[in-house]
Every structure is written in C-alpha cells, then in structure tokens.
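Below is how a single chain appears once it has passed through the pipeline. First comes the sequence as given, then the structure the pipeline wrote out for it. We keep one example in the README because the format questions we get most often are answered faster by looking than by reading.
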Amino acid sequence: MKRLLTTLKRCLAVGAAALAIAGLQPLSSATAAPQPVIGGTRAAQGEFPFMVRLSMGCGGALYTQQIVLTAAHCVDGTGANTSITATAGVVDLQSTTGRVQVKSTYVYQAPGYNGNGKDWALIKLASPINLATLNIATTTTYNTGTFTIAGWGSASEGGAQQRYLLKATVPFVSDATCRAYSGYSGLVASDEICAGYAAGGTDTCQGDSGGPMFRRDANNAWIQVGIVSWGIGCARANAPGVYSEVSTFASAIASAAASL
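Resulting structure:
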C-alpha cells in the first residue's frame, strides 16, 4: 500500500483510485500545470468508455470486455472471488442510464507482488461488458510525453471520493529526477513510471489506484502506459505520482488473461 505516511498507496481502506487536482500555486510558468485542469475537469459521457469503477474503491480499465486491469494492491491475492462489482458505462456513478454492473468471478494478482513494484492485477467478470477496451503498451515507445489520468477518487488529499469521473494531464518525469525527490529513493525504475508537475497541483489520489494512465499512440488511439500505484501525498510540489509500467508486464498480463 502506498508506503503510508512517507508514501501513500493510492487506495482507500475500502479500495483505491482518484484524481487529485489541488489548486497549488505554480512555481513558475514552466512547471505550472495547465490551468484547465486546476480544480479538476469532468470527463464527458462516453469519453473514456474503458474506465471501470471497482466496488472496493479502486479504478481499472477494460483489458478485454470481460477482464479488468487494475493494481495488485487493490486486491487480496489470486483465486476465485465473487465479491467485487465492476461499474462501467457512466461518468456519473449515481446515474443508471447506460450503467453496467457486473460481479467478479476470479482475481489474478501479479506473481511475487510484495508491495514494491509489480503492481498489477486482473479481475475476471461474470459476463462481458459491451464497451470499448483499452489497448496496453507492449514496448517503451509511449512511456514518455504527456499522459491522461482519470478516476473517481479524491479531488484533494484526504478528501471525499467523487461522484463524477475526473480527468487531467500530467507530464513524464525521468527516473533520475523522480528518485531525487524526497521519499522516492525506493522507486523501482525497471517497472515504474513517474508523472506530474514539479509545482504539484495535478495528480492521482486515494481512490484512483488501479486506474489507467494513458496517451495517444501513432494512430491517435488511446493506449495504456501506466497503472495508478503510489506517491507522496497527493498533488504536492516535488512529489509526482508513480505508476506501474504496463509495457514491462505486457507479456505476463497477456498470458495471465489468456488463462482466465
């Protein structure tokens, strides 16, 4: 779990995954987050059809129409599990129009997960959800640049979970820069990506865990490059979000999904 106190896993006592957009003052125009996302912006209905809200309080994305890709720290081991409800098809969690809710049947947690890296998991659903899926990166080609983050988590550190899906963009932060920040020496550079503004102000937060970090590929299609994992607080200066690097685990994810 987000290395609590010094590090904060982006999950709740009941789950994990959210968008923290705290209106911090920018240090300079070069490091400031774009103004449109300060305070958070709502995603439009249907904008990110692959987004899933999980009942334990995490986020996820449709890897296939019957498998959700999320974070390992959101689940409790591998095995049969019918206790999780996946909600999709809506940006407003209180809306019933277009909402699809399906129970889980099985959970697969990344082998060897111990809270340090390898933060991915798959949730098999009882029936398919007829919505667009999100392709995952299989190479490092898209692991830099500007990324989109989205979730129903806290809109401020320690805040309440959100009714509406929020979205924002964050820039890539190099491993060397990320590790230099206080509290980030434990970054697993081989399988984690950092993203955020030096000035803070835009980030994922509690309740966003397991949700995707994504960007456009060469064909202008969305492609997932990260899974919300951990960070120091939410949207603080010099404290970027840390995401599980999907391309590192692409083959393992595909193999595990094929076995479910």
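The domain at 135-247 is CATH 2.40.10.10 (Thrombin, subunit H).

See the next section for the split statistics.
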